[in-house]
Design goal:
The protein is an alpha+beta fold. The chain has one domain: Thiolase/Chalcone synthase (Peroxisomal Thiolase, Chain A, domain 1, 3-Layer(aba) Sandwich). The protein contains eleven helices and 14 strands. The strands form four sheets. A five-stranded mixed sheet has the order 1-9-14-13-12. The chain has a five-stranded mixed sheet with strand order 2-8-7-5-6, with helices on both faces. Helix 4 links the parallel strand 5 and strand 6. The structure holds coenzyme A (COA). Coenzyme A binds next to helix 2, helix 6, helix 7 and strand 13.
Amino acid sequence: MTYASPRAAVLAGIGSWTPPGVLTNAQLASRLDTSDEWIRSRTGIESRHRVTAGTSTSDLAVEAGRRALKSAGSDAVDAVVLATSTPDELCPATAPSVASRLGLGRVAAFDVSAVCAGFVYGLGTAAGLIAAGVAERVLLIGAEAFTSLVDPDDRTTAAIFGDGAGAVVLRAGRPDEPGAITSLVLGSDGGGRELLHVPAGGARLRVPAEGESRFLQLRGREIFRHAVRHMGASCREAVARAGWELSDVDRLVAHQANARITAALGGALGIPLERAASNIARVGNTAAASVPLLLDEDNADGSLTPGQRVLITAFGGGLAWGAATLVWPSLDSVGGPDPSGGPHVHDITDITAKES
Ligand code: COA
């Protein structure tokens, strides 16, 4: 599916939030059969943020959403789209609660579920609402308490995933304005569903029987190959639809799944690594929050500057993937990801403990 319309969705605000709890590789290695060296060298991750008991996806989404609205200079939105695979409850959607807590009135609010590709799918959804004239301004949030799906005793997934939220405000505008989403490509392959999934807890397997898990099951090596292939193809298509060459791309903002995936993607596209944004060392894979969190950090620290040609891409369970292009606009930065002054370790006993 591709999207093209004379009434474009234009980036007007950005914000993010990570919970204060930080889980380091050393802490993981103290209780699992892994090591700081293995995790760093195989994934590029050094630490990740974790919610503690009592904090959920909506809490993260509200914090990120508040910052994006402040950055946009207005609370006026017609819709809230929340990209998440870790809704507060299986039913209803979490977005209405987020909209209500942000005091946004009776706006349209719903969730989009596309795991790590959630933010690019949300971009397509928000851009579609704007193109159709259903909305003038949309708050799009990617938020995940993703570690609620992670078995704390599974050394692979426990090392990879983290929690966080990022948000953008999109407004109706012209396709030639800075910030306009100039091309957007989305795709999926349900044949790969079992490469990354949570078998039990949904309508198919309501209660896990013996041998079935309510935790995320990951076939990492296969996912790795699909990620490079599908992000690569969608990036090429998005760049072509924007009328660019790959050599025009100033900043590659790829979903943070593994530093080696980003390196392989950059290599396949011929985009030098210094043009590829990265925060995976500090946040790990935050699924639908990954891309907007990275965009906000890059905007805040000046790595992203107005006028740069930005290529966004993501890939995840489903399988689902996508890519988008835009020329970076001038956006106010509201405190960066952690206004409290950078990561600091809280009591992490309830982060590392296995829940029953
Ligand atoms: N510490 C130590 N060893 C670990 C480990 C850890 N944290 N995680 C996995 N291993 C082990 C495996 O058990 C395996 O052991 P074995 O050979 O005895 O069976 C060995 O390391 C190699 O596993 P493999 O899966 O082949 O390693 P890899 O180099 O592919 O790295 C991932 C594993 C998961 C880091 C990597 O495949 C990856 O990043 N995949 C994509 C991530 C992802 O799915 N993201 C979400 C969707 S985008």
